[in-house]
Design a protein that fits this description.
homodimer, about 280 residues, alpha/beta, D-Maltodextrin-Binding Protein, domain 2, six-stranded mixed sheet, 15 strands, elongated
């Protein structure tokens, strides 16, 4: 099974693929998210793993837009803890590290580490896993990287310090996407079902309240809601919403029919087992 | 008036300060967002301009967390269009550009430009405005940068190509923060009032629906809502909400009192004029 993702081999998205599908799935790297979606659309990959939100940085609207542009089903979700490791070529000691290369976002998530080790310089790089690849291929003097454990393994580098990130509560949520008619993947445990949907309303006072009544009247549980202004349509909004339940549960079916009446637009993105 | 922001001089946050307060305000750069908040807290700056959401990347949870940690008032908001320009030292022509330095996020927002000009290499840098400062100070051969018009002006560099970003619908929303007892700033035009608040509910079915009834029953208009899981408290949520109105309008006062009854926690972050 070929699974598209954005980034270099060793990216956190590849960790997501491991968690979602195990080691047999073949990760297929792409430079841009739109290329991952296009690859799934033309069938050059069988599925795609894409990040949708992060506990520090919020929802990734770019990818929500791509979900709306294409018509795939979300068949599973997983949460990847973002652990940053200091990684160097084998044989280099921590005392020899002079310059650390990584994506500026990763560097900025390890500021306590750099404050404790002022001798170490920071150099921006376009990608975390790519920085490991680079230090292994080019071996810049005293050069180390910050990236995932998986990146160290793939490029046969060594972890000098594990978990140097400032904040341990840094998780990224990924969706597994497959063709529209695909069935949800079985999760190992018996976690509850979730359904993700997108709808829009005109911004008359109480429009969202009326929309949510479709769920509240059926005792359905919301687990995410987010509004987003519609481009070029002042005061109109898209809402991203996750609820507990399957789209073909009786109560959910009725709620979706009701929501369809009060919303200008409604699309169900998929039902899947909640991440454990 | 000293106004703290994150980034180098010439950052988009400095553009926000210009839009919010005019050219008389003195921008005071900081490396990290928490340092901006700490500076405002101890009075080494009089106000702070912080980005809170972006039309492509969503809400910046880090800064919402800092809003909750401290007790400041939002006194104004503004939207800055993220325009990326190709910037070089004076005298360098476009044909001479060999390498473009910038933050990887900015580089990734100009991929069409790089696809059209394959001879040009990309180099990651920690900051957009910082990359202009660097090419002016160090003058790497054929080195240009991607940053704001303001950055070009500040470092006396020249814009070779304007607006090379892929997506013109890239806006960042900024808040102006001042001490808790500050009054809202007057906006030039007569835009509507907005009030931002944060509240939490236990996740019993319909909890959000009940909370929103406090607004809907008073015909108040929601302009943003976003849920966020509470750390370490499964199935409990924070909600960020913006509504149209001032916190001391009769209907808003009543709605807030009502919301206070049904929410576990409620805080009003400020009332301010909507960005024009």
């Amino acid at each position: 099974m070929r699974v598209g993702f954005q980034g270099e081999l060793g990216a956190f998205s590849q960790q997501a693929i491991l968690q979602l599908l195990g080691a047999k799935a073949r990760p297929v790297p792409h430079v841009r998210f739109d290329q991952v979606f296009a690859a799934l659309n033309k069938g050059s990959v069988d599925a795609a793993a894409i990040p949708i939100e992060n506990t520090l940085h919020g929802s990734i609207y770019d990818n929500y837009d791509l979900l709306l542009k294409y018509d795939f089903a979300i068949t599973a979700e997983t949460n990847v803890r973002v652990v940053h490791n200091l990684i160097a070529p084998p044989g280099m000691s921590f005392a020899q590290v002079r310059t650390v290369y990584s994506h500026p976002v990763a560097i900025n998530q390890c500021l306590d580490f750099f404050a404790r080790h002022k001798r170490i310089e920071r150099e921006s790089f376009y990608d975390t896993a790519g920085s490991v690849k680079m230090i292994m291929e080019q071996r810049p003097a005293g050069g180390a990287a910050i990236a995932s454990e998986l990146a160290a393994k793939i490029y046969k580098a060594r972890i000098l310090k594990r978990g140097i990130e400032d904040d341990r509560q840094n998780y990224t949520r990924f969706f597994l996407l497959e063709s529209a008619e695909s069935k949800p993947r079985r999760a190992a445990g018996k976690t509850p079902w979730k359904t993700s949907l997108v709808f829009s309303t005109r911004n008359v006072p109480g429009a969202l309240f009326r929309a949510l009544s479709a769920l509240a009247l059926r005792d359905l549980n919301l687990v995410k809601i987010e509004s987003r202004p519609l481009r070029g349509k002042p005061w109109e909004y898209l809402f991203y919403l996750d609820l507990l339940g399957r789209h073909d549960d009786e109560a959910v079916k009725n709620a979706l029919a009701h929501l369809g009446e009060v919303a200008d637009f409604l699309r169900v993105l998929g039902s899947y087992r909640a991440a454990g």
